[in-house]
Amino acid sequence: MALAFTGIDPKTGEFQSPTIALPGNDFWLFDEQLVRWNHFTGEGGSMGKEDTDDPAAAKLCSEAFEAVWARATPHDQYEIR
Questions:
Q1: Where are the beta strands (DSSP E) in the chain?
Q2: Does residue 1 lie in a domain region?
Q3: How many domains does the chain have?
Q4: Which of 28, 29, 35, 62 is 20 to 30 Å from 48 at the Cα level?
């Protein structure tokens, strides 16, 4: 499952259409090859982890991270409003 990134662009204040496919689970990506999925209950408790070296999963996670990072606001430019 993948989620779409939507919302208000903090740089322009304009609505952004979904353009980034995000994995539906929290994950760690190691060496752009191994994905560790973290599974949680509806109450936030851990249900354990799952590791995969599936190239398609690693590609999805790597591309999602890069796409989100490219849109991020640098810490020194972030302002609380």
A1: 2-4, 7-8, 15-16, 21-23, 26-30, 34-40, 46-52
A2: no
A3: 1
A4: 62
Question: If you search the block for the tokens 């994905």, which residue do you land on?
Answer: 35
Task: Provide the whole-model pTM.
Answer: 0.69
Give the DSSP H/E element, type plus range, for residue 70: helix 55-71
4 pLDDT above the threshold of 50: no
Specify the DSSP element, H or E, that contains 10.
Answer: none
By C-alpha distance, which of 41, 64, 37 is closest to 51? 37
Residue 33 forms part of a structural domain: yes
CA–CA separation, 53 and 14 (whole Å)? 38
The residue segments making up the domain with residue 54 are 26-70
Spatial CB neighbours of 6, under 8 Å, sequence gap ≥ 6: 15, 16, 17, 18
Asked whether residue 10 is assigned to any structural domain, the reply reads: no
